[in-house]
Amino acid sequence: MKDTSLLLIASALLLLPIDGRSLAAEDADMRGAVELGGRIVDSDDESAKFMEYRDLDDGFIGNFNFDYARDSYFFGAEGQNVGLDDQFYQITGGSYEKFKYAFFYDEIPHNLSFGARTFYSGIGSDNLTIDTSTPASQNTWKSFDYEVKTKKYGADVKVNLAAPFYFNFGVNRQEKDGLKPLGSGGFAGVVEMPEPVNYKTNNFTVDGGYRSDQLSFKLSGWYSTFQNDNNFLDWQNPFSGVTETNSLPADNNYAKIAANMIWRQLPLMSTLLVNGSYTNLSSDFSVYEIGAAIPAGLNQTSFDGDISTTRLSASFASHPVQKMDTRLFYEYYDRDNDSTVIEYDDDGNASHLFDYSKNRMGLDANYKLPFHTRINGGYTYESVDRNNRPDGDSNTDNLVFLKLKNTSLDFITARIEYSYLNRDTDENHDLTGLTITDAEYITQFVQRFDVVSKAKNALKFAFEFSPLDTFDFGLAYTYVNNDYHDVTLGRTADKGHEFYVDFMWRAAKILNLSGFAGYEKYQADSNHYNFSVNQFADPTIDDGNPATYRWYQSIDTDFWTVGLSSKIPLLQDRLQLNLSWQYQKADGSSDFTTEGLAPLLPINNYDDYHITTLDAKVAYALTDAMDVTLGYMYEKLTYEDNQYDGYNYNPSLTYLSGAYTDHDYENNVGYLTIRYKF
Amino acid sequence: MKRKHIILFFFPLSLLWLSCTLASSATTDPEPAVEKTGFIGAETCKDCHETQYASYAKSVHFKPSIKGPQSQDACETCHGAGAMHVEKGGGRGVDIFTFDKNTDPLAKSARCLTCHGKTPDMDFWDLGVHNRNDVSCDSCHDLHTASGSQKPKEPEVCFGCHRDIKVAANKRSHHPIIEGKVSCSSCHFPHGSLSKAMVKADDPQQLCYTCHADKRGPYVYEHPPVAENCLTCHTTHGSIHEKLLTEKVPNLCQDCHDWQRHPGTPYDSKTAFTGQSPSNRYFGRSCLNCHGAIHGSNTFENNALTR
């Protein structure tokens, strides 16, 4: 275990009850468990996907937990996956109704891709150089893994000594180290290379307030610093030999203050809440830190990033009559970007600072109808004004929804919900001086799905059946359809169907069986226009040039999943068998139609995959205090995708590193553990 | 660990010790006595409900030092006076309040909120989605066992109702929810919040930036949808597409970007590694083969997010 976690845990042990007699006090309740064992993994393919967030290598297994409680004091310690890359430790404790504390240390692996390759030297540093004259000779490339390891540790304390006043604070630190793929280049050639990740984020939180039956208020603050050891990455371009520079996430500071106040027991059994918050995000650096050539006509040599947000909201909830409750709400949000505008080429190019403000208000009401039926309806209005987003300069949303819930039969709960959203968007393109052969002329024809006018319909229903005390069954269906209005180029429509069922059957003391199944379908259609430099940037005009044409794409994705899980007590309170199985399949495709001369060929395997998982576990209680578990896990993933079929590290004008190529795996895992409980 | 971090670490520790000291000297004013009728005492309940009493006795509710059931009327604190129930010979729900599934959820939660309603964590309960959708305290918490324990723990307790999330969390690309490294309550506040989906932040971006502080900027060159809503391109729980994307690249990018040359070029199966005319705009990571700074760029001479 690393020094930091040792320090953390050792420090927290100070919080154990220091009076030795108290541990054995009559009112003390002490319990815990220690689990030790080993694991063997049989792996055909070394796949990062299998190990994405977990450490499943051969080796030792260790877990423990300990809980101690007296009449007024409690303490707990927990450790999972001791010594492994995904280890976790936590210590909690406190005095009931007075204070609580928690200390934690958590490691999270994120394995992205194993066995990647590159011709670069200096992997992990901020300077990638080519130490061979022939980067195309792949047998000289070095092997490495794309992986990012995260360590999180910190503490939270809640103090409530002077009730109704309270005070909470916390401090935590997150460290990320590793490599992730970075693509860069241009028309002369493309390179995929290892980007160093050495991030440190420190967070400090504090809040305090007052809470009574009628009134509560709270003040809170959050200060966060982000540090990256490498703000820029220099890399030698294998096509030109020139050293180029990519920007990596810059150091930044984030601060937030917030306040809220709640008044309860107002007339009509009402509650009023007002809330406000302000945040500021800043970052600054100089062009000289980049190390690259200073652009001609640069207006500023330093960048001062400064983004502030302001939020004000209010909500008023009432019970005007016994069977009815209502809610009115309003929210204002503003993002203000006061960062430096960078211009170069004597104002030929400039950064565009994006900011926006939003107003949102609405009301909804719940009413109890006869026959155990509840109706809930509401309306929300939202307007957004954006700066430097001409395709979505402003929009207004009108949303209505209606929900019905019925529980008139003891064994059935039925819910149905419908919502309709209408969005009207205003564009504000500045086309002054542009001609039809200027590329920017096309902006007026591009409608982007995140802001464009649209109608959205959503329908959901769900049923829960409990015909027997020992049997539950549920099903749910959701349909969502977005119809984007007046789209010349961009997504014109998308829709999704989701269908889920599940059940649980508890067959006396013989069997506990549960299962689920799901099917999801997603379809999206879009319009596009192919044109090149000096050709017409207007898809609505036929310029007679066969090189400019419109084309259309339809994406279709189907996803199935099914799972079963059972708990079978083979010998009551002695021997238990747990079995679970899960299968999922994704099948994507893309079809095209074109007005061009050359036909476009469909893509049939588009993020297609199958995953099969089988878990079997037998637990035998040797004594009341000791049990042994023998387990087996099987996982298989097969992935087919048109973008990765026939992967080539060095196709024309491209050097790739093999990122995300190790998808497939088939692994068997066996483990044996023994647990002692006290 | 740097010196300042050690100091920051031990600062709350010191305050905690101070709190302990204060706690040990704190005194509680006795509650004024209130005459109650119809109460029979826990021993009577125990005669018939031995199993329930045994589990209650192991719970934090049983501790007499807290202002909980045991320091008040034991079983009858939550279930109400039991005299009529006993008089009628017992029976499920006969003149006694039960936490059965058919009992009004608001009534069930109201019992719990008698004591727990004053905790700061419950500030937004009245306004929260769970309360307004008939989710009561006992939907998620086991009232008779250890302190506030869930039945079962996260994420399974949440998956019980949120089937779509269960399916999503098991997809090929997902946040480490099923691995236990991110819990539902890492991002959501189940007891109520003012934000959509009861997330623990004012909006999705600020929530995502909690862990992904490297993405928060400010950038010299922004990608406006990134600044406004991470969920334009990413989904939160799981996706069949890498990086929890809502669609596959290049389609996701081309749904917004049409320009001269490659943004408007069709990429079909001919442009794959195995096709007639492979294109580095399509194969492998597609657009991201070049546009590595997709969340924003800090070079001074680039607005195509390639540096």
- Poorly predicted runs of chain A are 17-21
Order of helices and strands of chain B: HHHHHHHHHHEHHEHEHE
Structural class of chain B: mainly alpha
Strand content of chain A: over 45%
Shape verdict of chain B: elongated
What does the model show?
The complex is a heterodimer of chains A (678) and B (307). Chain A is globular, with a radius of gyration of 30 Å. The two termini of chain A are 25 Å apart. In chain A, a hairpin with a 4-residue loop joins strand 30 (608-621) and strand 31. Chain A is mainly β and 678 residues long. Chain A is 3% helix and 64% strand. Chain A has helices at residues 3-13, 20-23, 287-290, and strands at residues 29-43, 59-69, 73-80, 88-95, 99-118, 120-121, 127-130, 142-159, 165-186, 189-211, 215-228, 232-236, 243-247, 252-266, 270-286, 302-321, 324-337, 343-344, 349-350, 355-369, 373-387, 394-406, 412-426, 454-468, 471-484, 490-507, 511-530, 549-571, 575-594, 608-621, 626-640, 654-655, 665-677. Chain B is built from 14 helices and four strands. Chain B has helices spanning 3-25, 42-48, 50-57, 75-79, 83-87, 105-116, 129-132, 137-140, 156-159, 163-169, 184-187, 204-211, 224-228, 251-254, and strands spanning 173-174, 221-222, 238-239, 296-297. In chain B, strands 1-3 form a two-stranded antiparallel ribbon. In chain B, helix 2 packs across helix 3. At the A-B interface, helix 1, strand 5, strand 8, strand 9 and strand 10 of A face helix 1, helix 10, helix 12, strand 2 and helix 13 of B.
